[in-house]
Specification:
This protein is mainly β. 0% of the residues lie in helices and 58% in strands. It has strands at residues 4-5, 8-9, 19-32, 38-55, 70-73, 78-82, 86-88, 102-107, 110-114, 116-119, 122-125, 131-138, 141-153, 158-167. The strands form three sheets. The protein has a seven-stranded antiparallel β-sheet with strand order 2-1-5-13-14-4-3, with no helix packed on it. A four-stranded antiparallel β-sheet has the order 6-12-8-9, with no helix packed on it. The chain has a three-stranded antiparallel β-sheet with strand order 7-11-10, with no helix packed on it.
Length: 168
């Protein structure tokens, strides 16, 4: 699994046990009318992420300009489901080997891989007989601001890092 931040790819030897979380940053409030009905007021939805890893080498991120927004090529997948074979991917995504979007068909509760083709951010999946829904699995590219913290364990001779990201 290769984690890319800006133009830097963290070497495998620095990231044996990569882990990533993807969580929403919501700007929303639930308002109530006189009769108690809820009305959701929302302004935007962005993502935040925490990525951690450790290895025999340091992470190599010292050359990054942490005052600028950086593109982070995620290692955790998101997915979107649709009733038809044409599904729009809602955000930027990775297209490099091993991280390209993947097509899935749901048939009687089973998941079956199916080919897909891309035209921009629209994925067209190959139809599967009996499919009740289709899904596209993709790895997002999130542009935002990051902070990095590091630790060295002298006894184990390993470096570890945690990268926190908030989408711009």
């Amino acid at each position: 699994m290769s984690l890319k931040i800006g133009s830097i790819t963290i070497p495998d030897e620095a990231a044996f046990d990569l882990r990533q979380t993807l969580d929403p940053i919501d700007a929303k409030t639930l308002l109530r009318t006189k009769n108690g009905s809820g009305i959701l007021q929302s302004r935007y939805q962005k993502l935040q992420s925490s990525i951690s890893g450790s290895g025999w080498l340091p992470d190599g991120l010292d050359g990054l300009d942490l005052t600028a927004a950086l593109a982070v090529s995620c290692i955790e997948a998101l997915s979107i489901t649709g009733a038809t074979t044409s599904i729009s991917i809602p955000r930027a995504f990775r297209t490099d080997t091993d991280f390209a979007p993947q097509g899935l068909a749901i048939v009687n509760g089973d998941v079956i891989a199916t080919a897909l083709s891309l035209a921009g951010s629209v994925a067209t999946l190959t139809a599967v007989a009996g499919a009740s829904a289709y899904q596209v699995l993709y790895f997002p590219v999130i542009t935002g601001f990051i902070t990095v913290s590091r630790q060295f364990d002298k006894a184990a001779q390993t470096w570890s890092f945690t990268l926190d990201l908030q989408e711009q």
